[in-house]
Design brief:
By secondary structure, the protein is α+β, with helices and mostly antiparallel strands. It folds into 2 domains: about 1-280 and about 455-510, 3-Layer(bba) Sandwich (FAD/NAD(P)-binding domain), CATH 3.50.50.60; about 285-450, Succinate dehydrogenase/fumarate reductase flavoprotein, catalytic domain (Flavocytochrome C3, Chain A, domain 1, Alpha-Beta Complex). The protein has helices spanning about 20-30, 50, 65-70, 75-85, 90-110, 155-160, 175-185, 240-245, 265-270, 320-330, 335, 360-365, 375-385, 385-405, 415-420, 495-510, and strands at about 1-5, 5-15, 35-40, 115, 135-140, 190-195, 195-205, 210-215, 220-230, 275-280, 285-290, 295-300, 305-310, 340-345, 355, 370-375, 440-455, 455, 465, 470-480. Strands 1, 2, 3, 6, 7, 8, 9, 19 and 20 form a 9-stranded mixed beta sheet that branches. Strands 11, 12, 13, 14, 15, 16 and 17 form a 7-stranded antiparallel beta sheet that branches. α1 (about 20-30) links the parallel β2 (about 5-15) and β3 (about 35-40). α13 (about 375-385) crosses α14 (about 385-405). The longest helix has 19 residues, at about 90-110. The radius of gyration is 23 Å and the shape is globular.
Length: about 525
């Protein structure tokens, strides 16, 4: 590194901005090809929102699915995406499914990376769907395997929000994915990792991006890249002003992204260099339960209860995949944000769903984000909805529970609904429809959360960033939520955000290295 303390400069072959699954896959792909690779991360920890995730990776047709006998193939995955997404992004859909198996091969060739197939249904009933899913997940990673890298991996969301580091237990889910990628990357001997380094602008010479200017510990740093710059630092979900400007529903404080990250700086820097954007009002949405401290918990996998709007009426199948339920809320923000998650005491006051991070019922009641009442009528008064309407809603729902058929919204008829339901209690014909008949009753306040924005830089099949006229900005690539998603307003299945990020990051490296 050379230069004055005020203006430092360094050089590498490939510069990667961000440290989630897409960024680290791209970095490893570059380093494994013998390219000197630098990764810069805005915060003190690696992993971003990927580290919070369940780490499902929608990487279809790979040897992992084949080993498990999952019945997947590239052709089935292509048919599924085309049925949902149509022809608008057909070229990127095809590039994605064609290269995904090679990405898995590349990663699993490294002894530090291992995947397993895990049942998790695709989200839509469409040709090519697998009812048990095609997602793969990283194998758990012993904490001691990471050595000095362990404190650099962003911990699970509950520990991270509490300011706690990684425990001495095996890393699971997103932490295992980030940990394994970091082990593989550093093991190449070709990687430089920099934390607390924030991109400020791109360095452009003769129309080509040749590096970035960043701020690191109060100093300006110029990081030059001989082969290319890969932007894979998430979206802009934590920037309230940019969300408002672009019309993204929800609130920055309701996002599941780590605090202090995902402010959209790479997107703004690329736009300043001539890049075009798309889907800027889109996100990966989800219902989110407000917690006693004002933070939110991602809610999925309902196995009881119902949602009502401000009028005390159901408005969707509550067991829908989370993005679809989030979009149902966003369709009527005045009436459905917040919504009310109404449930009874079948689980002794606990939320009949998965909440990430978990919620303490006592603390939620004490803070007022949950309310409790001995009768449905009293509950309605306490949450401010018409008592007669909520009473009818519960009566109709209980009638559906007795018959086993939800004629209004067909809850419990799809493999995804049933995946989280568990066995039906005695006398309940549909495990997704459990009557609300055990007082006291509860209502939790639900807002529109997100797992990130999904609008960003327009890219081609090699992840090259494009101008408005369709020409590529030489030397500049984007993947993950920094790029506009190929899935538009649709969330096809578990792990699509990670799978596409990882694949297009690898495609970017293939292109910039001149490889195949």
């Amino acid at each position: 590194m050379s230069g004055t303390p005020q203006d430092l400069e360094t050089e590498c072959d490939v510069l990667v901005v961000g440290s989630g699954a897409g960024a680290l896959t791209g970095a490893y792909a570059a380093a494994a090809r013998g390219l000197d690779t630098t990764v810069i991360e805005r915060t003190a920890l690696f992993g971003g929102t990927s580290a919070y995730s369940g780490a499902a990776c929608w990487l279809p047709g790979s040897r992992v699915q084949s080993r498990a006998g999952a019945g997947d193939s590239t052709e089935l995955a292509r048919a599924y995406l085309r049925a949902l997404l149509g022809e608008e992004t057909a070229d990127r859909q095809d590039a994605f499914v064609a290269y995904a198996p090679a990405v898995v091969d590349l990663l699993e060739q490294n002894p530090d990376i291992a995947f397993a197939w895990q049942a998790f249904p695709d989200y839509f009933a469409a040709p090519g769907r697998l009812d048990r899913g095609r997602s793969i997940v990283p194998v758990d990673l012993p904490a001691e395997a990471l050595g000095e890298l362990l404190p650099l991996v962003r911990p699970a969301v509950d520990r991270d929000r509490a300011g706690l580091g990684q425990p001495g237990t095996p890393l699971t889910a997103g932490r295992a994915l980030i940990g394994r990628l970091l082990l593989a990357l550093t093991g190449t001997g070709r990687a430089t990792l920099r934390t607390r380094t924030s991109l400020r602008s791109l360095v452009v010479e003769d129309g080509r991006v040749v590096g970035v200017r960043a701020e690191s510990e109060g100093r300006t740093v110029t990081l030059r890249a001989r082969r290319g710059v890969l932007l894979a630092a998430g979206g802009f979900e934590r920037d309230a002003a940019m969300r408002t400007e672009e019309g993204v529903p929800g609130d920055a404080s309701w996002s599941m992204a780590p605090g202090g990250s995902n402010t959209g700086a790479p997107i703004r820097a690329a736009v300043a260099a001539g890049a075009a954007t798309a889907l800027m009002d889109e996100g990966w949405f989800c219902p989110a339960a407000e917690g006693p401290d004002g933070a939110v918990s991602f809610v999925l996998g309902l196995h009881g209860g119902l949602f009502t709007d401000a009028s005390g009426v159901r408005f969707a199948n509550e067991s829908l995949p989370y993005d679809r339920m989030g979009r149902a809320m966003a369709a009527d923000p005045a009436g459905r944000i917040p919504a009310h998650f109404v449930f009874d005491s079948r689980e002794e006051g606990a939320l009949p769903a998965i909440a990430v991070p978990g919620l303490d019922p006592g603390a939620c009641l004490e803070s007022g984000v949950w309310v409790r009442a001995d009768t449905v009528d009293e509950l309605a008064h306490r949450i401010g909805v018409p008592a007669a309407a909520l009473g009818r809603t519960v009566e109709e729902f209980n009638a559906s529970a007795r018959s086993g058929t939800d004629q209004a919204f067909h809850r419990g008829e799809d493999p995804y609904d049933l995946f989280f339901a568990g066995p039906a209690p005695d006398g309940v014909p549909n495990p997704c429809l459990r009557p609300l008949d055990r007082p006291p009753y509860y209502a939790a306040r639900i807002v529109l959360g997100d797992l990130g924005t999904k609008g960003g830089l327009r890219t081609d099949t090699d992840a090259r960033v494009l101008r408005a006229d369709g020409s590529a900005i030489e030397g500049l690539y984007a993947a993950g939520n920094t790029a506009a998603s190929l899935s538009g307003s649709v969330y096809p299945g578990p792990g699509i955000p990670l799978g596409t990020a990882m694949t297009f990051a690898a495609l970017a490296v293939r292109h910039l290295s001149g490889g195949v």
